[in-house]
Write a structure and sequence with these properties.
Elements (H helix, E strand, L loop, with lengths): L9 H7 L15 H15 L6 H7 L4 H4 L6 H13 L11 H18 L15 H12 L8 H23 L6 H18 L6 H8 L10 H22 L1
Helix pairs in contact: 1-5, 2-3, 2-5, 6-8, 8-11
Amino acid sequence: MDETAVELPRALQLMWGIEGPARPGPKPTLHISDIGRAAVKLADAAGLGAVSMAKVAAEVGFTTMSLYRYVDSKDELYAVMLDEAFGLPDPIDPELDWRAGITHWATMIRDAIHRHPWILQVPLFEPPLSPKQLVWMEAGLRSFEGTPLSPNDRLSSMVLVNIFVRGATQLTADMFVTDERTKEQNDQLYGRRLMMLATPDRFPTIATTLTAGLIEDGDTDEFEFGLAAILDGIQALIDRSAAT
């Protein structure tokens, strides 16, 4: 038995292919990823609330008790689901500078969440430990190679970008639509309604902004704007680090 298994929950043992303590009963016949894909299928179809141990078990042709040979709790099931939902990131060109690299990384995270919006509803109790999630972490940290940032600053910068992506995506998750024409129509409708309600006498600052056409014209990509602001801050940190 691998001594590492003593420290890891059952699902992580299986995801990493680590030999854990023997359990009574027949040996597992499925790969843990099969269970993750089944749970993702349920969540994609009907939301995270549709995922239960019983439904996942039925999806893979198991009894609920049999499923517990793979995952000890729903929290473990969520970890498996996240690993499958995010998958592996596309390789980031090592020739890119840090800013282009982390921008690509952030955009891939946003796109994964758009494909599976329920990701934002999964409670997070600890940093990622699953194989594919650590590949994402490795890719994010690698973007900062060659900068004068300390290891701690690199980690903090990566986490900051991740927090921004999740937060920005959360704001639009319920309104996210794949039809760009519908999205544009919704944006224009919101702009007209806001102009009607935010009159200059009551909300002068909002009214001035609207008059400038920043919302109605739809020229501002809020995700790109916010990410650029975050990266500008990291660039300032890099500049200070290089000067010391």
